[in-house]
Design goal:
alpha+beta; Beta-Lactamase; Helix Hairpins; Heat Shock Protein 90; 6-stranded mixed sheet; about 20% strand; kinase; phosphoprotein; two-component regulatory system; transmembrane
C-alpha cells in the first residue's frame, strides 16, 4: 500500500485535511503560548515552594531529634524503668537495643486515636546497615491495630502509616560502678513525619488551586490583552478587504509612530497612496485616450467636411463664367479649414504626448518671473490701451480672517524653479492669449507672482481637482505652514482679468477638452478649445495645480501653483520612501 508523501497534511476519516500549525490564528497562538508559560511558571513556583517547605520541615525535625538526643541518653535509665510507656500525648518514639543481652526495649511509644500504634521499622539486631550513627534517616512505619478499641477511621490510619524520621545514637555504660565507660547498645529516637507530610500535601493542594486560578485568570486577561493589541491588525484586515473590493480610497488608521503598528500603518498608507495614484493615473490615461479618439473624430469632421464641400463646389462650378473668382473663394475656405485642422491636429498630438508622459523636460532651471514679464510685454503690444498691473502675491496677513491671496503692487519678482521652459511659456501664453481674445481691449489685467510654503507633500497638488475648493485647501495648508514650517515651497502665479467672465456653473468645465463657453465666438477668434486642457496637462506633469475662479468685480482669475523643486518619481520615489 502506498504511503502518503512526507510533509503532506494529515487527513481525518472524512477526507478533510487536518489544520496545520500555520492555519491557527495568531491570537490563538499567542494566548496558547501565554497559557503554557503561565502553567510552566505556576508549576515551577509550586514545586519550588513545596520542596523548600518540605526540606525546611525535615531539617526542623532533624534538629528536634538531635536536640532531644542528649536528654534521652542522659536519662536512659529513668526511661528504662518506665519502659513500654505509651500515651496519646507522647510524640517521640524511643527504642533501646541492648547489645549485652540482645534485647530490644521500647521506652516511649506514641499512641494514635482509638489506640492505634505506629512505630518506625528498625533493625532488630542492632545492625544499622546503610544508616549512620548521629545522622537522621527516614524509615517506613509499622502499624499495629490489634489493640484498637474500635474500627479506626481513614484519616487516623493514613496518619499512622506515614514514615518516621529516626536518629540512632550509641549508648555507653559501665558494667561496674567504678568500671570504664564502654559501648553497650544503640538507642533510637524517632518523630512521625505525618504532620510534615500533611502540611506539604495541603500546601501542594493550595499551590495547585492558586496555580490553576492564575492560569485561568491569566488566560482570560491575556486573551483580552491580545485581542486589544491585535485590534489594529483587525482594522488593517478590514481595510484590506475594502481595498480588495475596489475602494482604493481606504487607508489604515494611524497609530503612534514609535510603535510597530504605527510604522506598519504609515508604510501601508504610503504604499496604498502610490497604488491609488497609479491606478487613478491609469484610469485618467485610459479616459483621456478614449476622449482623445472621440474628440479628434468629432472636431476633425468639421474642417474635413468644409474642405470636401468646397472641393465639390469648385468641381461643380469650374465651367461657370465667373469660375476663377469662385475658385479663389473656395480655395481660401479650403486653406482656412486646413489651417484650422493643422492647428487642431498639433494640439491633439501635444495632448496625446502629455497623456503618455512624453514631451516634458523637467531638468531646466527657469525664471518664472521673466516668462510672465515677456508675456505681459506681448499683451501690451497686442492691446496698447489695456492697463496691465503687476505685483507680488502672498497670503493675507490677518490671521483670524480666512486665508486668501492678496497682491502687493510692484514689479514681478524673479522666481526660479525646475520646469520645462517651453511648456511653461506655452501655459502663460495660452492664458494671456485668452485674455487678449475674449476680454475687451480696455479692461485692466493683474499679473502677480510670489512664493509661499504649504503644509502638504509636493505630490498631492496634482491630485487635486482644478476648482476653487481645492484652492481653498491649498490656502489652508499655507496658513498651517506659518506654524509648522514643514512642507513644500511653491511658486504662485495669478492672472486676473475683468472681462465678461464665465458663469459659476461652467468654471469646472474650463479645463475640459474642446470646451468653449461660446463655440461660434471661439471659432471666430481661432480657438480650438484645447488651450486650457493643454495647460492643465502641463501643470500636472510638473506636479502642480491650476484652477479658474471668479475675479472680484467680474472676470476670471487663473491661479497656478507649482513646486520649486520637483518631487522624485518612479524608482527615485520608491527609494526615498
Amino acid at each position: 500500500m502506498n504511503q502518503p508523501a512526507t510533509g503532506q497534511a494529515s487527513q481525518d476519516a472524512a477526507g478533510r485535511k487536518a489544520p496545520r500549525r500555520s492555519d491557527v490564528p495568531l491570537s490563538v497562538k499567542l494566548v496558547s503560548m501565554i497559557i503554557v508559560l503561565l502553567s510552566v511558571g505556576a508549576a515551577s513556583i509550586s514545586w519550588a515552594i513545596c520542596t523548600l517547605v518540605n526540606n525546611y520541615m525535615t531539617k526542623r525535625t532533624d534538629d528536634q531529634l538531635l536536640q532531644q538526643a542528649s536528654l534521652v541518653v542522659n536519662n536512659v535509665h529513668e526511661l528504662n524503668e518506665k519502659a513500654n510507656v505509651s500515651n496519646s500525648l507522647i510524640t517521640y518514639y524511643v527504642e533501646l537495643y541492648d547489645e549485652l543481652n540482645g534485647q530490644t526495649t521500647i521506652m516511649l511509644q506514641p499512641v494514635y486515636k482509638n489506640d492505634i500504634i505506629s512505630r518506625p521499622q528498625l533493625p532488630e539486631d542492632g545492625d544499622l546497615g546503610q544508616y549512620q550513627l548521629g545522622v537522621p534517616f527516614t524509615t517506613p512505619a509499622i502499624v499495629d491495630t490489634a489493640k484498637a478499641t474500635r474500627q479506626p477511621d481513614h484519616s487516623t490510619l493514613e496518619m499512622a502509616h506515614y514514615p518516621w524520621r529516626v536518629v540512632a545514637l550509641q549508648l555507653d555504660c559501665r558494667k561496674s560502678a567504678d568500671g570504664p565507660m564502654q559501648h553497650c547498645g544503640i538507642i533510637y529516637i524517632g518523630l512521625s513525619m505525618g504532620n510534615q507530610i500533611e502540611l506539604v500535601n495541603k500546601l501542594t493542594h493550595f499551590c495547585a488551586m492558586v496555580g490553576i486560578s492564575v492560569v485561568l485568570l491569566g488566560g482570560v486577561l491575556s486573551a483580552l490583552a491580545v485581542q486589544h493589541a491585535l485590534s489594529p491588525l483587525k482594522r488593517i484586515e478590514k481595510t484590506a478587504a475594502k481595498i480588495a473590493d475596489g475602494d482604493l480610497s481606504q487607508r489604515v488608521p494611524y497609530a503612534q509612530y514609535n510603535t510597530e503598528m504605527g510604522s506598519l500603518a504609515r508604510s501601508l498608507n504610503s504604499m496604498l497612496a502610490r497604488i491609488e495614484r497609479s491606478f487613478r493615473q491609469q484610469q485618467r490615461t485610459t479616459e483621456k485616450m478614449k476622449r482623445f479618439v472621440s474628440d479628434a473624430s468629432h472636431e476633425l469632421r468639421t474642417p474635413l467636411a468644409a474642405i470636401h464641400g468646397y472641393a465639390e463646389l469648385y468641381r461643380m462650378q469650374r465651367q461657370a463664367p465667373d469660375a476663377l473668382e469662385r475658385a479663389d473663394d473656395s480655395i481660401a475656405h479650403i486653406e482656412a479649414s486646413s489651417a484650422r485642422m493643422t492647428l487642431l491636429v498639433e494640439d491633439l498630438l501635444s495632448l496625446a504626448r502629455l497623456d503618455e508622459g512624453h514631451g516634458i523636460d523637467m531638468t531646466q532651471h527657469i525664471n518664472l518671473g521673466a516668462v510672465m514679464r515677456d508675456c505681459a510685454d506681448d499683451l501690451h503690444a497686442l492691446d496698447p490701451e489695456r492697463v496691465i498691473r503687476t505685483g507680488i502675491v502672498g497670503l493675507n496677513a490677518a490671521a483670524p480672517a480666512p486665508p486668501r491671496l492678496e497682491m502687493v503692487t510692484g514689479a514681478l519678482p524673479d522666481v526660479a524653479l525646475v520646469a520645462d521652459g517651453t511648456r511653461l511659456h506655452q501655459i502663460v501664453t495660452n492664458i494671456v492669449g485668452n485674455i487678449h481674445r475674449y476680454t475687451p481691449a480696455d479692461s485692466p489685467v493683474e499679473l502677480s507672482l510670489g512664493v509661499i510654503g504649504l503644509d502638504l507633500d509636493a505630490g498631492e497638488l496634482d491630485e487635486m481637482a482644478p476648482d476653487g475648493n481645492s484652492l481653498q485647501l491649498i490656502l489652508e495648508a499655507a496658513a498651517r505652514f506659518r506654524t509648522t514650517r514643514q512642507g513644500t515651497m511653491v511658486a504662485v502665479a495669478r492672472f486676473t482679468d475683468h472681462g465678461p467672465g464665465v458663469p459659476e456653473e461652467s468654471l469646472s468645465r474650463i479645463f475640459e477638452r474642446f470646451y468653449t463657453s461660446d463655440p461660434s465666438r471661439a471659432r471666430q477668434k481661432g480657438g480650438t478649445g484645447l488651450g486650457m486642457a493643454i495647460a492643465l496637462s502641463v501643470v500636472r506633469a510638473h506636479h502642480g495645480f491650476i484652477c479658474a475662479t471668479q475675479s472680484d468685480g467680474g472676470g476670471l482669475t487663473f491661479t497656478i501653483v507649482m513646486p520649486l523643486e520637483q518631487p522624485p518619481t518612479g524608482k527615485d520615489a520608491l527609494q526615498s520612501a
